[in-house]
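Pilot study result, target chain (312 residues):
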Amino acid sequence: MSLQPWYSVCTPHKDIREGRLDEATFAVDLWGVVSGQAPEVYLDSEEFFQKTYMTEGLKSVLLKTLKGLSGSADAGDRILSLQTSFGGGKTHMLLALYHFAKSNGKIEVLQELLKETQLKWKEQQVNVAVFTNKTCDATQGRKLPDGTHLRTIWGEIAYQLGGASLYKLIEPNDKARTVPQGLFEEVLRNASPCLILIDELADYCVGASGTKVGETSLADQTISFVQQFSEAVGKVPGAMLVATLPASNLEVGGGEKGQEILQSLEKRFGRMAADSKPVKDDEIFSVVRRRLFDSVGDASVAKETAKAYWEM
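Predicted structure:
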């Protein structure tokens, strides 16, 4: 059998065929998607999942999220930490969960999961909050069009989950940049079902360590909040928290301070979180293939090609 050229067998995605693929698009900016400042492939949920390979890790976390948001008694882990090295697929998984929750059950991948697992999903609005190192400046905070001035991660989460009404429950704490002690359970109960996605928190805390709050810093307050928040999520059915952490302090700036912050966050998340790995080593080829190609041709052609290379 004479082998055919790859371009006569495989069909790349349209953006590649038209020369519009920028390698920078492989670096997912979660907050860029939330704010609408990201490549179209990440903004459209259907297109995103069409080009996303369903790894075992992603499928596992989607199922846990599906159960967690449904409020079922067998929901299991509702606090998940994703800790891999840079480029390990953590942020991509958070974006999958973002589209998953925002779709309200209308995307194909959710329907397939429901069919496979025989789970029930009642159509409902899921409140979603996203916090990354780009969401809210540690020094200046973030000003919203309605005049609200958010200053902390707890202010951001409360406002994103329920607008001004839920924000008022912890507004004094947000203004003072002090942890809301035991107050967040009420916020979550009012917002349930809700999904909170936290990305690059260690990097944010390095910057926040320079913002003084009394005898402490905003980084100290944020780390303390993680523990309070995790405990609140665990008490509220229908609430789900997924956070990412770098695999080592080498990926966090700030030298010794960065290492100290990462260790503190690992302890806080480790108390209640179940760790998940987004992509296994043997799945990387499938992930890249799914992103680059619409089709890789007939299976028999692939088999013959592999055989020819093996014989050569």
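One observation from the pilot: The two ends are 14 Å apart (CA to CA). A full batch analysis is planned for the follow-on phase.
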